[in-house]
Amino acid sequence: MQKRSPLGTFGIYATVIFTCAALLFPIYWMILTALSPRTRLREYPPRFWPDDPQWGVFADLLATQPFALWMWNTILVAVATMILSLTVGVLAAYALSRHRLRGGQGLGLFILTSKMLPATLLVIPLFAIFKSLGLVGSLWSVVIAQATLIVPFATWMLKGYFDTIPPELEHAALVDGCSPLGALVRVVLPVAAPGLAATALYAFVISWSDFLYARTFLTTSESKWTLNVGIATLKGEFVTDWNTIMAASLMAAVPIIGVYLFLERYLVGGLSSGSDK
Amino acid sequence: MIDFSSPRHRAKFGYLLLAPAVLMMALIIIYPILLSVDISLQDVRIARVGGDREPWTLENYDWLVRSGEFWNAVWVTAKMVLTVGGISLAIGLATALLVNQKFRGRALARLFVALPWAVPEVVATVIWAWMLDSSFGVVNWALLKVGLIGAPIQFASNATAAFFAVCFVMIWKGYPLVSIMLLAGLQSIPEEQYQAARVDGANVWQRFLFITLPSLAPVIGVTAVMTTLWVFRDFAIIYVLTQGGPIGSTTTLSILTFEQSFSFFRMGQGAAVGVVTLVICAFISRALVGRFANSVH
Amino acid sequence: MATIDFDNVQKSYGEVHAIRDFTLHVEDGDFCVFVGPSGCGKSTALKMLAGLEATSAGSISIGGRDVTELGPGKRDIAMVFQNYALYPHMSVRSNIGFGLKMRGQDKADINRRVEAAAETLELTSYLDRRPRALSGGQRQRVALGRAIVREPSAFLMDEPLSNLDAKLRVQTRSEIVNLQKRLGVTTIYVTHDQVEALTMASKIVVMRGGVIQQIGSPDTLFAEPANIFVAGFIGSPGMNFFRGPVEIENGRAQTRFGEQVVPLSVSPDRLPRGEAIFGIRPEHLKIGGETGGTPVSLGLVESLGTEKILHFPTPEGQAIHSLQKVIGSDDAARDSTTMLARVIDDRRYSDGEHVRVALPEGKVHVFDPETQKALS
């Protein structure tokens, strides 16, 4: 590596800081607006620094709106989806990774293809099915619908992790007297723990971000809404109430941003797996 | 009771593990897809499972080919794919190259550069909706201040402006994935190749042109296909920002499918649009699946 | 303590036969090595014995008990893997004790046996570390510890030394042999390295293309290879081969090597008419006599101190062109137009020097050019 000149170093930092500032401005603007008193939002020119931050906005939001309920619903759906897709995904991914199964390759391809299904098409038959099962308006409808995307994704991601674990590990466990299931539970899963965590959190992120399914299946009763449906509706109804909307948005974004900051290293591997092999 | 540890029966254990996933895929993906084809062939308003069914007809597809709405949606989708795909790719490549440089704090810069990835689509959309607000939005203020425009742009009611507003949000949500994937691609290029090129006297631009780009080409290809599919399928951004309007200027195939089915309750027509979209997506993803197929085994 | 029997075992993947007609009897307490080039089926044979791969036909017994349909955990065997396959999330103690725990031994008993095994392998001070914190040699010993603590009826080892550096490998080689002698447990050991096979085994099974080529003691394989493949594979370097005429003189068979007439110890009626393939080990060649033998010009001289490997061209018209196919392609150093001689003396040899090479009587092997089998 050549030594960079002081001017070059300055150039790099200036570019990085300018780029990050430009790209992340919307996030800053969301935080700033959330903290601004409502009256300030109609002043020209806009202020770029929170000189009078209103921290109470979050407490107000949790107290007055059905907001807390929406958040709770979102958490319920995300956790249920995460557990469901991880359970089914772990078993399938392990089988695909380890056993030379007849049709296994076709299934692998199918799992990949299902990532590309247009969700707005799938939502029509699912609506018809849930309608006849009486599931419309139930959080379960959203969990099941999200599984169409998240189970294939989790399976694919987990298969990638299992592929990196040498099969000799389970062979050793089998020789040591484990049953095949015992080898999976006692040896493979503990070794794959980082991959399981990454997949689980990623499933959580996808579920948390869903709008279409919640909007379609839960629209009738406000108490069943998720955060995203709530926020989208707030935007339509209270056009002037931008500080409340931004505060709600901030609270909806924070868990995902937290997961991202924690998981970034794993995501790079998970998202791009298969793209460069 | 079968002893699954026996070498003879170990494969059966594999099928057993696979069973829940296969069953689930069949019930919640395959069956619904077949059902949607079935719905698209019936003249139904609100589809139900069981009960009376309409006779099969090609009426919905006939409507599709004749209606201006469908062709408008195809045109809007194509424009959006090109705009969003092109610009996200450019920003993604630029940011990936930037944070691939060696400097102190690079890990932090990598984290920040792709941060919009972690903002839920609905949240990203309402942030932009506020920033693009025609009366008090910061974007209009900045443009007026610089003197680029004389009067605030009406992002909600001007067809062209609304289209670009949707594109802004999509690009902002879409470039981080491109950046993340291209960065992974950049990191897999061995440093020796650059050193060898430097010894051969290649300058920065030549090294980019003859080493970086060819090595990245497969990843760029996959990324382009993934971004295209994402634009095709996206619902939340457009629906929350413009609901497809004004006058259809942001109605993509995905929005048209939803609108027909759940706004006008013409599920037969909606399903027909969706099935056609599925076929188009299948053709596009063949490029991707072809690449992935090699890594399946 | 047990005998091991393979009875006509087959393994095929669809149309591809990985193992054919594998029949082998291993005595109680034997150290049996499966050796052969990569892809010869030696690992597959071991995995079938372990119960990690299903057989396509035939049966396998351990200690007289048919285990063909049993799972690996029920065969009373222990295995050491090439990459050691230590459980990374467990301490060394738990790694060694895992097999006992799975068999429901009580805690105190497990602990006692783990400590005893650790004592034997000098691992006592590492018992509470994770495998990640150990060196390659220490990991290898943990893998051995996991095997010996169970006191199984057989040890299976799949190239356990190939991840060690050269010096440690030689040292560990003798440690494993001593351990096996002391415990007296029947051992099947897979390797691609014929030196390991010769130095460690009491019985060697040479394999190629899924078929057993020869079974025998190290001495037998070295002195009486059954065919050209075994002759070329065993020994370092392997045997030299050349084509030569079969002549009968006064009722005795002889051939020619360059100018030299080489008498053969094989009776004439067993020899093919016309031509045969002959083999001579590099260490049996006599170099540098004043008369006799045939003159050659040295191509390359590799010196390893006292020992020297001399390269010289095979006499005109006596090279075997299909040799590469016969020996297998893994022996890249071999080229059918060059012969090697291994000498230990104080003379200095230089490239291009002219010396006389002689083939001593009684050291020349004869092979059938059609079947490639040894004739004697």
Biggest sheet layout of chain C: 6 strands, mixed
Shape designation of chain A: globular
Q: How many discrete structural domains of chain C?
A: 2
**Fraction in helix of chain A:** over 70%
Secondary structural class of chain A: mainly alpha
Radius of gyration of chain C: 24 Å
Mind describing the biggest β-sheet of chain A?
A: none
Annotated CATH homologous superfamily of the largest domain in chain A: MetI-like
Count of distinct structural domains of chain A: 2
Explain this structure to me?
The complex is a heterotrimer of chains A (277), B (297) and C (376). Chain A has 277 residues and is mostly helical. Chain A has 2 domains: 1-54, no CATH class; 57-272, MetI-like fold (Orthogonal Bundle). In chain A, 75% of the residues lie in helices and 0% in strands. Chain A is built from 12 helices and no strands. Chain A starts with 5 loop residues before the first helix and ends in a 5-residue tail after the last helix. Chain B has 12 helices and no strands. The longest helix of chain B has 32 residues, at 68-99. Chain B is flat, with a radius of gyration of 24 Å. With 376 residues, chain C is α+β, with helices and mostly antiparallel strands. Chain C has 2 domains: 4-218, Rossmann fold (3-Layer(aba) Sandwich); 232-375, Nucleic acid-binding proteins (OB fold (Dihydrolipoamide Acetyltransferase, E2P), Beta Barrel). Chain C has helices at residues 42-50, 92-102, 107-120, 136-148, 166-183, 194-200, 218-223, 228-233, 323-327, and strands at residues 4-13, 16-26, 31-35, 57-62, 65-66, 77-80, 154-158, 186-191, 203-208, 211-216, 240-245, 247-249, 252-257, 260-263, 275-280, 286-287, 294-297, 300-304, 307-313, 338-344, 354-358, 365-367, 374-375. In chain C, the strands form 6 sheets. In chain C, strands 6-7-8-3-9-10 form a 6-stranded mixed beta sheet, sandwiched between helices. In chain C, strands 2-1-4-5 form a 4-stranded antiparallel beta sheet, with helices on one face. Chain C has a 4-stranded antiparallel beta sheet with strand order 11-15-22-23. Chains in contact: A-B, A-C, B-C. At the A-B interface, helix 1, helix 3, helix 4, helix 5 and helix 6 of A face helix 1, helix 3, helix 4, helix 5 and helix 6 of B.
